Amino acid sequence: MKGLLIKDLKLLLGQKRFYTIVLGLGVLFMITYDNPSMGVGYITMLLTIFTLNTISYDEFDNGMSFLMTLPIYRKTYVQEKYVFAGLMAVGSAIASTVLSILLGTIMNKTFDVMDVVVTGASMIVVVLFILSVTLPLLIKFGAEKGRMAMFAAFGLIGLVVFVLAKVFGDTDLVWIDAFLATVDAKILVLMGVLVLIMVIFASYFVCVRIISKKEY
Amino acid sequence: MLLSLNHVKKQYGQFALDVSLQLEEGQVIGLIGANGAGKSTTFKSILGLIFPEEGECTIFDKPIVRLSTEEKEQIGVVLAEAGFSGYLTVKDVLPIMEAMYTSFSKEEFVEKCNRFHIPLDKKIKDFSTGMKAKLKVLLALSHNAKLLILDEPTAGLDVVMREEVLDMLREYMEDGTKGILISSHISSDLEGICDELYMIDNGKIVMHEETDVLLSDYGVIKATEEQYAKLEKKYLLRVKKEPYGYNCLTKTKRYYAENNPELTIEKGTIDEFIMMMIRGEEV
Prior knowledge:
Number of strands of chain B: 15
Number of domains of chain A: 1
Mean pLDDT of chain B: 92
CATH class of the largest domain in chain B: Alpha Beta
Low-confidence stretches of chain B: none
Distance between the termini of chain A: 20 Å
CATH topology of the largest domain in chain B: Rossmann fold
Low-confidence stretches of chain A: none
Oligomer: heterodimer
Distance between the termini of chain B: 35 Å
Strand content of chain B: 25-35%
Largest interface: A-B, 26 and 32 residues
Structural class of chain B: alpha/beta
Number of helices of chain B: 11
Shape of chain A: globular
Strand order of the largest sheet of chain B: 6-7-8-3-9-10
Mean pLDDT of chain A: 87
Strand content of chain A: under 5%
Shape of chain B: elongated
Order of helices and strands of chain A: HHHHHHHH
């Protein structure tokens, strides 16, 4: 696991020029937007999504077959991707949240610190959710075809949401509004976290199943 | 036993693999065959990259899927068409190897990289074919493995480098407890290092012989039509029609030399034997 984590970190550092620009833009968003959350979301999203890119790098020149001959179990490869994504998400969300609060304070912006913190936390939930849906697809189909499958999957989710909105659009969903009004944002995040943990576990088990049957 | 394959079978459309081979401590065995003969499929089965439909494949007397990571550390691998991601540099690979293999020696490895002119700061994808090949062999040798599984480790190397790599392998074998399975399409590489050779064609092992026997007892008889007609066919392995008559592969060239002094019998090279085994017809 440690070796694989180092590998992905080294792959990330190999792209440091691109990610310096990402960080620069993130800071620019924090400075120019009144609400510093935009920068937090941007940095967290792009850095965590890098986990998906590592699969392309692993696959480069049949690299996956070589990786599988190293002293690791197949499931360790999968575990490492979740750990790496988790570290990236939590690390970049905390760092960018702290940075945006610092910048906001220095520049005397009026903002609610708690709002920024909740945004940071929600970003972790959202980005890890996206990863959990995508990782099994990339591991099953490979980075290239997996990306197509990913677009198809998100397209499908979009379509379902659209159809549901059309069907229920006119109905007064008073109970949802009422429910949301009574629930604190923090509780919502907590519920999100619980759902996320379940999604991550389901996604992990699907990935392990896929990788243990895959031929390289 | 370091490695054992017992009728390992795998089907890909028309292609059917069915391979048996054994490797013991202190032994170097070579797998020769044309492109597409099944060498890589055999290696992939051994390494657990693909799953054979039938047969048994064991390393250190255990099925490969049951090997622990400690046991996998004892295997050094070169794959013909794969290695560490091209987006990494050798400097990036060092801590990865240190984390993965308990007996990896960074200093020794870096020293060898310098000796073989392998750049530490360049991305592997920008390496020349020769540099990539050297790096792969050095990595396989870097962690004191008990078993080396090397698919085409000398491909892309010039003559001098090939000899250097083979010397490293000979040095590796010195203590007598280790073993190597090596494939190459350059049979002279294998001739000088292997104790036994397995020849694979169309997924099957068509010949298995000790290298010494192959070089001392095998020969190619060049016979005219008349000579061929009179020839004892019992000891002929393969026959191939040629413009002047027949080429015949035999395992007992001494017998023919003694009984038919007028015959032209060539010592032959392993490449010729391969050609005869594949293109020739059974008698």
